[in-house]
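Page 37, continued from 36.
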């Protein structure tokens, strides 16, 4: 990393200009190669208020409104009319199962032949939809996938982030999904500095103890996310960094995905570059998928820490 960090003039702040870094170098950018995954933020309302939620979801945060089934369908129609190579629809929040249209949205996407990935805390909102989920599983099998957030393999650390009694309720939901044969994975994080082998072994022990058939060594079944903290200094990514770091820009999340959001008070949804940056207006790319094909300038700390340096991706 020493090769890309520089002494920056105090008058030139980091991440200030979308085209150049603080030392005047050309900022790295990513071109959309193919829209393989389209995410929908179903709304920022959540049944929990987590300490380090990157999107600040809570029972009161409605900065992103509930997207409707009709609004989702319009984007699915555009995928079909433009013959886009989209294979996966991702649903995130907030808690997606709080969206009043969630059952219709799931049916709409699955019936059109998409794989669907839902990010959930597997608590009460999801459990209210057990009958719907069972029906969808019977009809579409493993095309429906659910990824459950479990912040650590210990109750103490998970609940230090999400509060009590989230541990038992999340585990109950996860066990129901796994034991009912759903296509289920777990997402965790490196918030406490655990090395990845330690995390994976800890989760392997947890899964074994609770009869949860998830292979903790499989990175698609236990997804370990790097932490995101926009206040922590990180180096800006220049065009030269791709070769220095031996990273391919086509491997970045924004090369193959976009997210649709519905801002509170807006008359229509908008397409943004990334699931991690729903509020930053510089990453809003238009109201249609066609308009969202512009290149994305990596002008945010999350671009550097999560994606380029952390190797993170929200997709399957």
């Amino acid at each position: 990393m020493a090769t890309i960090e520089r002494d920056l003039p105090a008058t030139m702040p980091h991440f200030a200009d979308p085209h150049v870094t603080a030392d005047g170098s050309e900022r790295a950018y990513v071109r959309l190669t193919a829209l393989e995954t389209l995410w929908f933020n179903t709304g920022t309302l959540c049944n929990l208020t987590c300490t380090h939620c990157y999107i600040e979801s809570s029972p009161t945060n409605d900065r992103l409104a509930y997207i409707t089934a009709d609004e989702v369908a319009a984007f699915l129609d555009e995928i079909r009319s433009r013959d886009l190579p989209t294979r996966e629809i991702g649903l995130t929040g907030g808690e997606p199962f709080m969206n009043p249209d969630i059952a219709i949205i799931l049916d709409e996407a699955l019936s059109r032949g998409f794989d669907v990935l839902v990010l959930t805390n597997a608590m009460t909102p999801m459990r209210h939809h057990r009958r719907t989920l069972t029906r969808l599983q019977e009809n579409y099998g493993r095309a429906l996938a659910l990824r459950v957030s479990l912040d650590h393999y210990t109750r103490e650390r998970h609940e230090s982030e999400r509060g009590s009694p989230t541990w038992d309720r999340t585990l109950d939901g996860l066990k129901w999904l796994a034991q009912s044969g759903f296509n289920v994975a777990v997402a965790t994080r490196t918030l406490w500095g655990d090395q990845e082998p330690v995390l994976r072994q800890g989760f392997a022990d947890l899964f074994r103890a609770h009869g949860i058939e998830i292979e903790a060594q499989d990175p698609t079944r236990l997804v370990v996310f790097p932490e995101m903290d926009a206040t922590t200094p990180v180096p800006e990514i220049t065009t030269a960094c791709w070769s220095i770091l031996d990273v391919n820009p086509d491997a970045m999340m924004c090369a193959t995905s976009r997210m649709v959001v519905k801002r509170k008070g807006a008359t229509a949804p908008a397409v943004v570059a990334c699931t991690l940056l729903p509020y930053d207006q510089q990453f809003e790319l238009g109201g249609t998928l066609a308009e969202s094909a512009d290149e994305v300038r990596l002008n945010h700390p999350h671009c550097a820490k999560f994606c380029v340096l952390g190797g993170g991706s929200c997709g399957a």
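The CA atoms of residues 21 and 27 lie 6 Å apart. Flag for discussion at group meeting. The two ends are 28 Å apart (CA to CA).
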